[in-house]
Amino acid sequence: MSSIGLIGLGVMGANLALNLSDKGYALSVYNRTFALTEQFMAVHAQGRAIVAADNLPEFVASLTAPRVILLMITAGRAVDAVIAQLLPLLNPGDIIIDGGNSHYPDSTRRWQELRAQGIRFVGMGVSGGEEGARHGPSLMPGGDVEAWPVIREMFQTVAAQVDGVACCQWLGEGGAGHYVKMVHNGIEYGDMQLIAEVCHLMRHALGMDYAAMADTFALWNQGRLESYLIEITSQLLRHKDADGSPLVEKILDRAGQKGTGLWTAQDALEHAVPLTLIAEAVHARMLSARKDERVAASQLLGKPTEPVPENQRQAYLEALHDALYAAKVVSYAQGFMLLQTAARQYAWDLPYGDIALLWRAGCIIRSRFLGDIKASFAREPVPQSLLQDPFFAAELQQAESGWRKAVVLAVMQGVPAPALSSALAFYDGYRCANGSANILQAQRDFFGAHGYQRVDRDPALHFHTRWGGDGVEEQLP
């Protein structure tokens, strides 16, 4: 009998199965296409306590009670279809875990529907890609809290570990786990876009070759920018094609996306959270898809100017370093702002400090300063934003000059840097005690009589001025 069953033997499912097996768990596996199951068993399962099933009744019957079933299948209708097939075979108290990239409203719905039938549902975000799944991913479980004592030891054992702490902690009811994973992926979009923009500036504004760029990222990875994405960027910039030229130069500049970044940006709009950097990262991918238009526009509208002189390169590299670091801080600040807003709406008690620790290893956005984010949420009282935390406020003030210099470089050289510049605009807007929205409110009141509040009156009172008439101000009911 197996202690866990896994459905879906794609790249992630197969590697998680092997990870579970390495940690001593007997498991049963099932895939809709049995040929893939046979291949997995022949190549990977020899000598392991892994049982293959060619139908769901046989699969379910091989599991000890309460049954724990992990779904590693394509998000969406496929998850609902498999759950519907499993339900007649399960007993109250059995546990279904969705480890795919499901949208959190779907996880909330499944949690509610299955709870009514006595089945404990968990929506668990899994990050780290193929390598993480095989050797230790970051896991973000949420759903039916009664399932957590049953699965806790198993998944904290297979998760990545940092200083003896597992990158797997319970996050809350309903869709909380997949919500945190969605925000993780949104921050990932932002991080990747920031790095891509810095690479573009290095290449086209500073005239650096790929070897020098690779060396720079390798050096940066030894300091406060240390992270998985910085590390792999150095490696991919150094990789050669068969003809000896840099492979990245041959890769078409049209980015794909699976939707999680878009979900994050849409959710931020619905919750009125200014997630500007991540939204720009999503828009940048959309613009990259218009390759033919961009090629035509480059011939019509001209190309960027010549790179800056080489003797100025080092100063600009230092500026790019500071800009990348500062914008990265803004990205995380916006992400946690969204998490805090959603937690209030959905009554989740999200452990923000633990979330930062979940992302220290096993996942794509793992980086050095996640420990500093944990420290911020351990303060009493907790700062309203990471930008108001003493540590990060000092870091941003130190980086500000270089940040501005990098954005000016992009503007003057005609190199697009939407994420770097939008992060700076957010920073300036966030620290602006008296902004420009008073003009917006006056405009809205002029053409639509929407009313406004006054800084010298009770904020509960609203007023309207007859701008185009006698100019009299009146208090609205």
UniProtKB/TrEMBL annotation:
GO molecular function annotation: NADP binding; phosphogluconate dehydrogenase (decarboxylating) activity
Coiled-coil intervals, chain numbering: none
Residues involved in substrate binding: N101, S127, G128, G129, H184, N185, Y189, K258, R285, R444, H450
InterPro entries: 6-PGluconate_DH-like_C_sf (IPR008927), 6PGD_dom2 (IPR013328), 6PGDH_C (IPR006114), 6PGDH_Gnd/GntZ (IPR006113), 6PGDH_NADP-bd (IPR006115), 6PGdom_BS (IPR006184), NAD(P)-bd_dom_sf (IPR036291), Pgluconate_DH (IPR006183)
UniProt catalytic activity: 6-phospho-D-gluconate + NADP(+) = D-ribulose 5-phosphate + CO2 + NADPH
Transmembrane segments: none
Keyword NADP: yes
Pathway connected to this protein: Carbohydrate degradation; pentose phosphate pathway; D-ribulose 5-phosphate from D-glucose 6-phosphate (oxidative stage): step 3/3
Record-annotated active site: K181, E188
EC number: 1.1.1.44
Keywords, ordered alphabetically: Gluconate utilization, NADP, Oxidoreductase, Pentose shunt
Binding site for NADP(+): G8, L9, G10, V11, M12, G13, N31, R32, T33, I73, T74, A75, N101
Enzyme class: oxidoreductase
Domain of life, per lineage: Bacteria
Domain 6-phosphogluconate dehydrogenase C-terminal: 177-468
Record-stated family: Belongs to the 6-phosphogluconate dehydrogenase family.
Role description: Catalyzes the oxidative decarboxylation of 6-phosphogluconate to ribulose 5-phosphate and CO(2), with concomitant reduction of NADP to NADPH.
Subunit structure: Homodimer.
Protein name stated in the entry: 6-phosphogluconate dehydrogenase, decarboxylating
Organism: Thiothrix unzii
